[in-house]
Structures are given as structure tokens and as C-alpha cells.
Amino acid sequence: MSEPFQPDRTYDQVYLLFVDTAGYSTIVRSNPRDRAAHAFDLLRERMRARIGQLAARHRCARSEVWSWRGDGGFFAVHDESESVARDVVLEAARAFLTLDLRHLRDEFAQAGVAGELHVRMAVHKGAIRHTGEGRTGTIHSPDINLAAHLEKATPADCLAVSEDVYRTAGPYAELFAHVGSHEGKDIYLMAGDGGPDGAAKAWLAGRGLADGAPVHAYPERPSPQEKARLLDAAAEEVLDMGTALRTSSSRLVTTERPARYRDAVLGLLRRGGTYRCYVLDPSSDAAATFSRQYQEDMARKIKDSLERFGRFKERYGAEAEGLRVYQTDEFPGFSALGVDVRRPGGLILYCSYLTGTGRYGVIERGDMPHYLIGPAAGRVFARIRELAEARASAGRVQRVL
Q: 3-state class of 198 per DSSP?
């Protein structure tokens, strides 16, 4: 029988095991509340039972749920012999990941719980101070915070340990592969099969390479409805740049209903905003190059777009005063829809132009990946904004509408 942590006492070399459900919201949405709650109770009890079993086997002095809230929490394990606490935690985490998780999934299926169960697990060690019965969840320490943040960074169905744990992992070290760093600590990962194989790929898939930035990626051009949401968010200005802007101009004069994109443009203009559009000069070398690459009459498409922009402006008169269309001989190699790009919350949806040739044929621009970025993307956002805005000043720029 393990002893409880004593109030107002500091314990060193406590092993902290964080467990969290990846995809919690999908299970909650897909099941009645009582069934979802029962499912997560099963998760907690299975983890508690596994730790309790190993704590008894190794005669570990202390092991308990330190905090648990719904879909996850963490356990604190301590013994005067550090290797005992280490063995309990690392054996429990490995057994849960490779054995208990599979059984839990079967139990979820038998209980009619919809959704897939995945977990993230992380282990760190450090000092904690117990403040008394019922107050464990209010503890704040650098070690607990690091373990919690590491769990959030861990790929689904993997176990991450900090360098502090890895240095004393002993026989368990061979289960882990060094995958990178987090908050100044080297991180080692065990993949879902219970070993280091695949760990590096799992970490890179979830975390990316060093010095990366958050980007939302889409396999193809977002729908008019989704792009209209971007326009709805604009406070001052929208920048729309491409080769001919055939799609944008067509949506402004469409006879289909609802005309969601056109309504979003009108909403921007009616609240005093500006909608700046940039197309290629149909007589430019860039337009001629695109005509050859895409085997299409680019000059004709640009002129058609200008005609549609003109019809929109004529139809809405003073309301469309904020629509400004420019043509330029410069093109940076991508299209972009920018929203308040100079304001703190600016956004840019952009797409690089790929020019498939030969056996690959022509890659349609709407079929290319699109990326949504904001200031959190750091230098990526700054660079794309710089390139987009340069189009307004580089080369020959002429306002045509």
C-alpha cells in the first residue's frame, strides 16, 4: 500500500506522468454526455490501475493521481530510491501505450462509444510541494508546467520524455529516440509501437522543422463561402492579386444565389473599406509567359475580368467606390487574398503558382495547395506581405478602374 504525499512537504525527483486524450472533442460531439463521461472514466481508471499495479510490485512509496479533469491529467510517483519511481512510471507508460490502449479501444467499441481514442503521454521529473488535501490541482511549478507543455507537444499515441528523465532512463533508454527540443530541453520519443522506430517522423509531422511557423494548409482553393469569411473579417482593406482574377470578377457579377462572395465584398465597401485588385497587364511579358505555359489566351481573360469588374462598379455606383483595379507587368509567382495586412490581426491566403509541363500536363491554379497565415507566422507572414505589397510599386502599375 503506497503512502500519500504529506502536506507542506517538498519532494524531490518526483516523476510526473501526463496523459491526455487526443481528439477529445470529437468523442464528446459524437456521443451522449453520460457515455462520453463513462469512456473517459475508463481511461482514468485503466491508467490508475496500471500505475497502482506496478507501484505495488516495485514497492513504490507514493503514487497517486495528482490532478484529473475530464479527458486527462497527471500522476505523481515518488520513492526514496529514484530508480523505483522511474521503473513504475516508464513501465506503466509503455504498457498503457502498447497494451492498455488497444484494450480500451475494444471496450469503447463494445460500449458503443463513437470516435477514435488516441492519447498523448509525457514524462518529466522534478520537485513538487503538496499543499494539503484537495489542493493538489492548484500547484504551479516549473517542472509541472514543463511536463504539461511537453504533453501538448507530443504526437498522438506517443510517449515523450525530457532529457532529465532520459539521462536516468537506464534500460528504458533504448526505447526512445532523440527527436528535437522543447522549452530548452532535449526531447526523446517512444512511438506507439513501443520503440524508437518512427519516433522522428511522428515528431516532425506534428512539430515540423526548427524555426517553423504556424500555417493553415488546404489541398485546393477554399470555397467562395470560406473566402467570404475572410472578407467579412476585414476592417479596412482587402488586397486581391492574381493573374487575371477571373474567379473573383465572376463572383461579383454572378446570377447564382446566394452570391455569398459578392455580398461580402459589398459589405466591406459599404462599411468604408477598400477592395484593391491587381491583374497582369495583358500586353506584358509576364502575361505572354503565362499564355504559353497554360496554353490559354491570358490577354483575353484579363480583359474579360476587367469588363466584369466594370459591370459590378456600374451596377452598384457609389457603393462600389472602394473597388480599385490595377494592372501591372510584375508578378511575384503567387496569388494572394490579403485582409488588413498592415494591422495587428492581418491575414493572407496565398497560393504559389506551379507550372506543370510535359507528362504532368497543366496544373490548374484552383487545384494547387493554398495557405492561410497571420502575424504568428513571423518571417513567413512578413515575407509574403512584402512580396505582395511590392506588386503595388514595382514595375509599371496603372489603375484601370
A: coil
